[in-house]
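Follow-up to my post from last week.
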Amino acid sequence: MNRELLEIKMTDMLDSGYSKTEEAELLAQLKDYPDLAEMWSLMKGGPVTGYDSAFPLRPAEEADLEAIREALEPGVTAELLQWFPRYFAAAALMLVFLTGYFMLSTPQADSYESQVSEWIYLYGEEYELQNNEFLVQELPFRFD
Amino acid sequence: MINVQDQPIEQQLLSELETLYPRIERSVRAYTNGTGLDSGDLTQDAFLKAVKSLNQYNQDSSLYTWIYRIARNTCIDAMRKLKTRRQYDAPDVDADTQTDSDSDSYKSDYEHREEQNMVRRVMASMPDDYRELIILKDFEGLQYNEIAIITGLQEGTVKSRLFRARVMLKEGLLKAGYVHEP
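User reply:
Got it. Predicted complex:
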């Protein structure tokens, strides 16, 4: 059994207790490691105590706990601040996409204005044309 | 009856906060003992970091284990920044354990405080990784598998190092004149 396995064995024995037979077996294994045998005789006297008084538990400051509670339960403003950038980024992306789509779908770069005019005035012009044709048909004479 | 594990993690942390906080603070205090760092600030920092990354907690380990890992990294960063050499500078009288000492109890109080200072001094003189094992096992009573998760070591390595750490602590205390009372 190597040093590390012996250290593991000693830790297990100190943690969960051991019989005299088990200790005799361990001491036989420790014959090749006199330094470990010395450590065992030191440790079997009992563990170190006094941690609790050297490092006592301190009750938490209420202000510290409150700050953590607030961080755990963010208010409406915090939620908005958290979510607004995401929605803003989504809207900006949508705008870029739509603009790109518009520019690519329009056949000629110099006809944007006429295209828009066409979209805007299309209905009015058709109405006017139809109206004019109606007038022309109705009148018994023509204006040339 | 609702199992604590079934609660949303935010609720779980809220319900355990009052018991978790002092435990983590004490571990941080013991870990940074002798550096001059403020354990309260580091603990607060660790908890706020934990809240921000709660979605990363997968409940494979206990909340203590998870937050302790964050606190440990926070301490390591702070200690690295401080570039401190561990030179213990314990006050003669510790405010935490100071008691009203009348003439009858003065001697025993003094001896008690000396013992506490001794434990702190020896702990502070130990290597960080050995001191940490003492904190996790002997202070906090964690299971070896939990300690293995925190430290990233094999369970066997944790046990063998813990044995050396305990020996180191006991030898240091005996050299300093600590009298063990079983």
